[in-house]
């Protein structure tokens, strides 16, 4: 596109959104850019060059998603006050050396997703003329480490640099030598397999991202000034910090999605508050599952660097004993191979608030006063092999701050008595996919003790409880007495419901979300009328053949009726309180009758009602499965006959017969009139006028 003629710059349209202090003034450049205050937005305009008719006081120029290939020496000549320039997603191959001579105050430059590898040396000369540049984005330009070294060689003012999504393979001390002011460096999604003292000269570096590369290990980690290190999604097998008493500023370390075999050897002194170790191959080795003890066994790491050899000896099971983790708040060790925790492991983390140990091999987990965890608010032990959750009797300081406790998908049958008595802030408990029953349990004839059960009665702070797939049988009594549950999931319990919902009456005033999915519910007589606070109800996957009448008076926002045996909903459902309040309803996988879809038509006219599975709905007609949204005309006519008023139908059918008989009678009467009259007169003895 050619640049507009200079004279056309007088045709700028002023769009003032108010005058005076703080008013925002918007300008529109003819056919090209939008200007708001000192920002010119020329994104996605198919520009092949930089517009030259913009305001001279433009400070921010956005040229993303265009087709610019070259920045010539005169491209930015008119913009002496330019501070931010973005050329992301163009076809930029060359930036000529003199292009920035008139824009010496440029602070932020984004050149991501271009083709700068073609003329990188000339582009480097252009960048060297930016003494005030603070942020540079070179991501996605097919750059090698040598090209990057040339491009940033003279950029000593840089504070933030991104060279992500390039083809960097190896880093050494020569690549970032002069970046003494650098605070943030992004190297993610390259092909880096080796780093040799590449960051030692970056004394101010605080945030380093090397995620999605091919690093096999991190050894002698010594960047004491670093605050955030992301080395996730590599192939790291071990992480060893330098043995030093120096204080590391490290606050967040992300080693997730690697191949770690051992718990990382962390700095002895640090400010670490988040340690992410998800999806590795970690375990502890103080003892093995076969009973073998490895308490005194060590492993030696042999580090060879040129002619020097360094041997680091580490105990297999107490690697962190010399690390100060008192400031740690978040520990994520999910998706590993941990089957036990060393004694005193959690005692070193008194500030821990979030602990994720899900998807491991834990068989037992001990809650004791030795591991106080007084600050812990979230504990996730789901998807393990837990058969026992231990707790010291009388240990009144166990998990006093716990709010979320996830024990789902284990092999638990019982919890320690009164385990929730000391969790004064517990709000959410997930016991789904365990073989547990709720107290009280009826006594079994011939047995002195009642079956084991989980007692949640009297836990006043509990608001969310999931018991899905627990094999609950015939709930009765008052299992939720003294609680204020708002969310309850009882799905996938085929024997949980025994006729009525009397055992839920203690929740009638508080329960807002109830899932009874796949609970073999078949009786339409189940009474929901007492649950006036319900806003979401899931009845899917059951055997309901009649719509429960008690639902009509509820003011639900969401109702799920999928996968039942319903031939129809009530014709007046849209006029019920339920129909007026519903915002979302699921209806598919039911054997609806194509000839009784009046309720469906009325629901479609309800304003604000969303049927997410409406496209999947079907109905049956004469052994055919059809879509209620597009019924063939013959089917509609046939349905009209089938659903017509029978009395009217009989009247219509009888009317022609009656008319025929009446006409026949009239014809006979007129034909035999004289004979009939004579016969009547002769019978009555009346004399003839003749």
TrEMBL record:
Q: Name one GO cellular component term.
A: plasma membrane
The answer on whether this UniProt entry bears the keyword Ubl conjugation reads no
Check the record and name the Pfam families matching this protein. LRR_1, LRR_8
Question: What stretches pass through the bilayer?
Answer: 648-672
Q: Which SUPFAM superfamilies match?
A: L domain-like (SSF52058)
Whether Signal counts among this entry's keywords is yes
Q: Which Gene3D superfamilies match?
A: Ribonuclease Inhibitor (3.80.10.10)
Q: Which region is the signal sequence?
A: 1-26
Where does this protein have coiled-coil stretches? none
Sorted alphabetically, which keywords does the UniProt record give?
Answer: Leucine-rich repeat, Membrane, Repeat, Signal, Transmembrane, Transmembrane helix
Name of the molecule in the record: Negative regulator of reactive oxygen species
Q: Which organism is it from?
A: Buteo japonicus
């Amino acid at each position: 596109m050619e640049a507009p003629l200079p004279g056309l710059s007088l045709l700028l349209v002023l769009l003032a959104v108010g005058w005076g202090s703080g008013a925002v003034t918007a300008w529109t450049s003819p056919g090209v850019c939008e200007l708001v205050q000192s920002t010119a937005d020329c994104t996605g305009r198919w520009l092949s060059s930089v517009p030259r008719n913009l305001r001279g006081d433009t400070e921010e120029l956005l040229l993303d998603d265009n087709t610019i290939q070259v920045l010539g020496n005169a491209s930015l000549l008119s913009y002496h006050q330019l501070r931010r320039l973005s050329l992301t997603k163009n076809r930029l191959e060359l930036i000529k050396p003199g292009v920035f001579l008139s824009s010496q105050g440029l602070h932020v430059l984004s050149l991501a997703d271009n083709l700068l590898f073609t003329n990188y040396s000339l582009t480097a000369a252009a960048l060297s003329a930016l003494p005030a540049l603070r942020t540079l984005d070179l991501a996605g330009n097919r750059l090698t480490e040598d090209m990057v070294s040339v491009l940033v060689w003279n950029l000593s003012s840089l504070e933030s640099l991104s060279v992500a999504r390039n083809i960097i393979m190896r880093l050494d001390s020569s690549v970032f030598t002069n970046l003494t002011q650098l605070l943030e460096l992004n190297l993610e999604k390259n092909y880096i397999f080796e780093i040799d003292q590449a960051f030692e000269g970056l004394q101010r570096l605080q945030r380093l991202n090397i995620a999605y590369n091919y690093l096999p290990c991190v050894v002698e980690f010594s960047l004491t000034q670093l605050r955030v290190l992301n080395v996730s999604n590599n192939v790291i097998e071990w992480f060893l910090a330098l043995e030093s008493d120096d204080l590391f500023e490290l606050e967040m370390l992300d080693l997730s999605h690697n191949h770690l075999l051992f718990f990382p050897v962390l700095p002895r002194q640090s400010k670490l508050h988040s340690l992410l170790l998800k999806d590795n191959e970690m375990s502890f080795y103080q003892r093995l599952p076969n009973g073998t003890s490895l308490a005194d066994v060590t492993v030696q790491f042999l580090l060879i660097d040129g002619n020097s050899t360094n041997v680091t000896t580490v105990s297999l099971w107490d690697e962190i004993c010399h690390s100060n983790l008192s400031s740690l708040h978040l520990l994520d060790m999910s998706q590993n191979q941990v089957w036990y925790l060393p004694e005193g492991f959690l005692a070193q983390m008194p500030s821990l608030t979030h602990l994720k140990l899900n998807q491991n091999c834990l068989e037992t987990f001990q809650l004791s006063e030795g591991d106080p965890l007084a600050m812990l608010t979230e504990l996730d032990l789901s998807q393990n092999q837990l058969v026992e959750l231990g707790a010291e009797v009388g240990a009144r300081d166990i998990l006093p701050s716990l709010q979320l406790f996830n024990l789902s998908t284990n092999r638990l049958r019982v919890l320690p008595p009164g385990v929730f008595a000391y969790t004064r802030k517990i709000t959410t408990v997930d016991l789904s996919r365990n073989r547990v029953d709720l107290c009280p349990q009826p006594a079994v004839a011939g047995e002195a003790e009642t079956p084991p059960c989980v007692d949640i009665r009297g836990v006043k702070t509990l608001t969310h409880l999931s018991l899905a797939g627990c094999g609950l049988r015939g709930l009765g009594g008052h299992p939720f007495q003294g609680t204020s549950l708002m969310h309850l999931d009882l799905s996938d319990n085929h024997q949980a419901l025994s006729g009525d919902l009397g055992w839920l009456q203690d929740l009638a005033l508080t329960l807002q979300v109830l899932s009874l999915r796949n609970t073999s519910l078949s009786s339409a007589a189940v009474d929901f009328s007492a649950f006036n606070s319900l806003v979401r109800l899931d009845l899917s996957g059951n055997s309901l053949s009649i719509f429960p009448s008690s639902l009509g008076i509820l003011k639900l926002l969401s109702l799920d009726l999928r996968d039942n045996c319903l031939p129809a909903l009530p014709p007046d459902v849209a006029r019920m309180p339920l129909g007026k309040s519903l915002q979302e309803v699921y209806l598919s996988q039911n054997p609806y009758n194509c000839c009784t879809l009046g309720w469906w038509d009325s629901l479609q006219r309800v304003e604000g009602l969303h049927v997410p599975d409406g496209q999947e709905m079907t109905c049956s007609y004469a052994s055919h499965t059809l879509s209620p949204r597009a019924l063939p005309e013959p089917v509609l006519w046939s349905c009209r006959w089938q659903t017509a008023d029978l009395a009217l139908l009989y009247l219509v059918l009888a009317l022609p017969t009656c008319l025929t008989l009446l006409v026949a009678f009239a014809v006979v009467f007129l034909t035999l009139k004289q004979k009939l009259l004579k016969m009547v007169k002769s019978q009555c003895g009346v004399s003839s006028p003749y």
